[in-house]
Amino acid sequence: MGFVGVRMGGVWCAIFMVVGVISVSQAQLSPTFYDQTCPNVTDIVSSVLQSAAQSDPRIGASLIRLHFHDCFVQGCDASILLNNSATIVSEQGALGNNNSIRGLDVVNNIKSALESSCPNTVSCADVLAIAAEVSVVLAGGPSWTIQLGRRDSLTANQTLANANLPSPFFNLTQLKQNFTSQGLDTTDLVALSGAHTFGRSQCRFFDNRLYNFNGDGNPDSTLNTTFLATLRQLCPQSEVGRNTNLTNLDLTTPDTFDLNYYSNLQQNNGLLNSDQVLFSTSDADTIPIVNNFSANRTAFFEAFAASMIKMGNISPLTGSQGEIRTQCNLVNGASSSSGLIMGGGVESQDHMVSSI
Ligand code: HEM
Ligand SMILES: *[C@@H]1O[C@H](CO)[C@@H](O)[C@H](O)[C@H]1NC(C)=O
Ligand SMILES: *[C@@H]1O[C@H](CO)[C@@H](O)[C@H](O)[C@H]1NC(C)=O
Ligand SMILES: *[C@@H]1O[C@H](CO)[C@@H](O)[C@H](O)[C@H]1NC(C)=O
Ligand SMILES: *[C@@H]1O[C@H](CO)[C@@H](O)[C@H](O)[C@H]1NC(C)=O
Ligand SMILES: *[C@@H]1O[C@H](CO)[C@@H](O)[C@H](O)[C@H]1NC(C)=O
Ligand SMILES: *[C@@H]1O[C@H](CO)[C@@H](O)[C@H](O)[C@H]1NC(C)=O
Ligand SMILES: *[C@@H]1O[C@H](CO)[C@@H](O)[C@H](O)[C@H]1NC(C)=O
Ligand SMILES: *[C@@H]1O[C@H](CO)[C@@H](O)[C@H](O)[C@H]1NC(C)=O
Ligand SMILES: *[C@@H]1O[C@H](CO)[C@@H](O)[C@H](O)[C@H]1NC(C)=O
Ligand SMILES: *[C@@H]1O[C@H](CO)[C@@H](O)[C@H](O)[C@H]1NC(C)=O
């Protein structure tokens, strides 16, 4: 409903305009959503996550990435968690996910624990949002107020996942385009890329930079030569494009959530092309933001928290939309047999070949 005051002949006339018939009240996310129905939801998530981290120090990084890849495809609706079925072509098979995402089993363990304490209450989409925040805090990063009340989708869209998930080979223009499509601005892009302060990447996502970057037989000139030598040992030329060897995204402090991601960029030590372009693209508006976050931990942490909340708000299902899934990999009432349907997804192996 719009209110417009119009001055006419010295008299104020109020004109109330009903804009269309869009009176469906859109329920909002809220930090207190589970206060009555599952008061210690965050403790339960945290407790399962901490025990998983004992045997897998990388799990927090893998879980925040799941939330990101969920939110960029149909909004934060746990669509990424749906397995192949008669009606679902899983997003897990999309280019940015296949043989790369991790942590689906831990999400299922968290969901099981929640079903024991508060059955049919907490959505899988909210599990991903909570796990993302808890993971950052456990790694030494900022905390933020987690908005809750998302519901789970009845659908997934692998085609959309292929179109929406940014590639590590993208330049700055392409990265900005994909973030803008989600309502995220340049500051969000630089802040959220700071999640590469922890976790790992396979050689196949950056080894195009190491030998013949522009078809002229030279490596990427924006890659530090010392780092280049190290990466060439891990990622031989004979395997370019298909090498699953792992290395740390953050060269200096691989498992800590800190601002060193940005000082790495200033020293040409960004691992992915999509990281380094934030600092090395001529005259880019991202350079002063990198310099700011590199010099000021508070600025980075505040911006990261704000951008995570913004990303977590992308097109959630709320109210009576969607459902609360009982099992995160399955729409309620569907059969669990994944059968022989094509286009499935494969989780990444987690074997760190060498830390050189
Ligand atoms: C800006 C565009 C982005 C691109 C192109 C990108 C690309 C990638 C790639 C290629 C990997 C390595 C995956 C593998 O080797 O299997 C990765 C890992 C990771 N990404 Fe991103 N990413 C981007 C933004 C983000 C955002 C916004 C977040 C979270 C807020 C994020 C969090 C992570 C984390 C934590 C890892 C490590 C995962 C693990 O160790 O399992 N990334 N990313
Ligand atoms: C959840 O809350 C109950 C009651 O306050 C408490 O006994 C239990 O330990 C909590 N669970 C977790 C995992 O923190
Ligand atoms: C997936 O998304 C695309 C692009 O929005 C749309 O054209 C297509 O109909 C969707 N497919 C499914 C199965 O929802
Ligand atoms: C980014 O890549 C696109 C597609 O290859 C190209 O058209 C564009 O000129 C590139 N932009 C920059 C800044 O390099
Ligand atoms: C993401 O960027 C690529 C490269 O510019 C583009 O082809 C694709 O359409 C973009 N997707 C969205 C949703 O912005
Ligand atoms: C993985 O890295 C090691 C060095 O740590 C290297 O010897 C090996 O050839 C690499 N494997 C592949 C498939 O490239
Ligand atoms: C390369 O990285 C090292 C630290 O790893 C740094 O001291 C050096 O200044 C960097 N070189 C360039 C050209 O950025
Ligand atoms: C660091 O960033 C914070 C938050 O933006 C700001 O309040 C503070 O003044 C900055 N500190 C410096 C030294 O610039
Ligand atoms: C640094 O980043 C913070 C957080 O985004 C922002 O408030 C501040 O204005 C920035 N400072 C500069 C000098 O860009
Ligand atoms: C979903 O697929 C994974 C393997 O990709 C499997 O471990 C899991 O059991 C499946 N979930 C269901 C409910 O079928
Ligand atoms: C995902 O990777 C597996 C194993 O590498 C492959 O068999 C499958 O075809 C891929 N899925 C898609 C949809 O590309």
Tell me the distance between the termini. 62 Å
Largest sheet: 2 strands, antiparallel
Query: Could you say which structural class the secondary elements and strand pairing correspond to?
Result: mainly alpha
Give the class-level CATH name of the domain at 3-167 and 313-355: Mainly Alpha
Ions and ligands: protoporphyrin IX containing FE, 2-acetamido-2-deoxy-beta-D-glucopyranose
Unreliable runs: 1-24
- What's the CATH architecture name of the domain at 3-167 and 313-355? Orthogonal Bundle
C-alpha-based Rg, rounded? 22 Å
- Helical element count? 12
The helicity comes to 25-40%
Shape: globular
Give the SSE string. Answer: EEHHHHHHHEHEHHHH
Q: What's the number of extended β-strand segments?
A: 4
Catalytic activity: 2 a phenolic donor + H2O2 = 2 a phenolic radical donor + 2 H2O
Cofactor: Ca(2+); heme b
Domain Plant heme peroxidase family profile: 28-332
Family: Belongs to the peroxidase family. Ascorbate peroxidase subfamily.
Describe this protein's structure.
- Ca(2+) 2 binds at residues 197, 250, 253, 258.
- Residues 1-27 form the signal peptide.
- It is a single chain.
- 42% of the residues are buried.
- This protein has helices spanning 41-55, 59-71, 104-117, 124-138, 158-164, 172-181, 186-193, 225-234, 260-266, 273-280, 287-295, 297-312, and strands at residues 2-8, 11-17, 200-202, 246-248.
- The chain has a two-stranded antiparallel sheet. Strands 3-4 form a two-stranded antiparallel ribbon.
- Residues 1-24 have low confidence and may be disordered.
- α1 (41-55) packs across α4.
- The chain has a domain at 3-167 and 313-355: Peroxidase, domain 1, CATH 1.10.520.10.
- The chain starts with a strand and ends in a 44-residue tail after the last helix.
- The chain is globular and about 55 Å long.
- The protein has 356 residues and is mostly helical.
- The structure holds protoporphyrin IX containing FE and 2-acetamido-2-deoxy-beta-D-glucopyranose (NAG) (10 copies).
